[in-house]
Amino acid sequence: MINTSKGIAFGLAISIALLLVAFLSLLEASNSIILLAAGTLTFSISYLLIHLSLEYLIFREIGNIYSVLEKIQKKDTTFNASNKIKASLPPLKSIQANIHDYAAAKNREIETLQKNETFRREFIADISHELKTPIFAAQGYIHTLMDGAVEDHAVRDKFLNRAAKSLNNLEDLVQDLITLNQIESGFIRFHPINFDLKESILEVMEQLEGKAQKKGISMTFRYEKEASYQSYADKDKIFRVLQNLVSNAIKYNKEAGSVTIQLNAHKNHLTVKVKDQGIGIQPEDLKRIFERFYRVEKSRSRENGGTGLGLAIVKHILEGHQSKIAVSSTPGKGSVFSFELPHASKVLEVQGAKSKK
């Protein structure tokens, strides 16, 4: 009981009352009634004041601190560490603020670890599935040939071509994983140079022309002939960004649809937009399409090929250029992917100003 506010208040109140009674007993005018009344009144007032002071100014605040510490020890992240309880005394306020700051930091750390653990589980499940598909396909074709189908030349050539295609898909997946990991880890350096972005787009269109013709898809490139489209960026990596976006626009387009690439020059930057007439993307999928292996329609995506890493690579390459990939889509009508790059003239202007300083 002595460790509670009531026990401490009782002990101190008794001591104060006895001291007062002892002092009053030395006076000639005091008698037993006065001493009893003074002792009782002093005890009551002292007890109430001390008890309330200890309970509301100290013990309650210490209780709150212990409650937070107990939850931290139990790894309970349900409490809201941002809601700080105001302490009445400066020392306790400081302690409580430190405790809550520590709890908030630990809470964020735990949340990050939980997200990383979830990501790790999903990533292992996704990559296992993605690797299994081409491996099992190639394995099935080869085992069929080993079981006797190799004697039939038509079947042999057909199955060997399919096995080779599956292994090529496996190689593409591994290469994309290596590229993505190197970009995220900072092992791949960006080497910006001045180059004509318009020429890069024309090169990508020429490279993918055959793929578009197989689906009866037309490609249109819109730009102003008089404008300058010189950009300052990593040419090879931007080429890959364009390649991925135009390839996806063809891959997920409707039959006999169209792909429109628009290039606009502004004072300080260039804007690229790639528009298709495909099935579009649902609003709930828009935020996740740049995640690794995320596919809006998994079965259809695998039929069309691809590793599921293209948009993730696009996102990281553009972030390395201090830019972002934007997407807008209307289900049933198509999607528009866009990004910006710095204009070479603006970059040279900034570099010139820095050199003068």
TrEMBL record:
GO MF term set: ATP binding; phosphoprotein phosphatase activity; phosphorelay sensor kinase activity
SMART domains xrefs: HATPase_c, HisKA
GO terms of biological process kind: cellular response to phosphate starvation
Top-level lineage group: Bacteria
Compartmental location: Cell membrane; Membrane raft
Catalysed reaction equations from the record: ATP + protein L-histidine = ADP + protein N-phospho-L-histidine
PROSITE patterns in UniProt: HIS_KIN
Topology in the lipid bilayer: Multi-pass membrane protein
InterPro entries cross-referenced by the UniProt entry: BphY/WalK/GraS-like, HATPase_C_sf, HATPase_dom, His_kinase_dom, HisK_dim/P_dom, HisK_dim/P_sf, Sig_transdc_His_kin-like_C
Gene Ontology terms: cellular component: membrane raft; plasma membrane
Keywords: ATP-binding, Cell membrane, Kinase, Membrane, Nucleotide-binding, Phosphoprotein, Transferase, Transmembrane, Transmembrane helix, Two-component regulatory system
Transmembrane region(s): 7-27, 33-50
Domain Histidine kinase: 126-345
EC number per UniProt: 2.7.13.3
Protein name: histidine kinase
UniProt lineage: Bacteria, Pseudomonadati, Bacteroidota, Cytophagia, Cytophagales
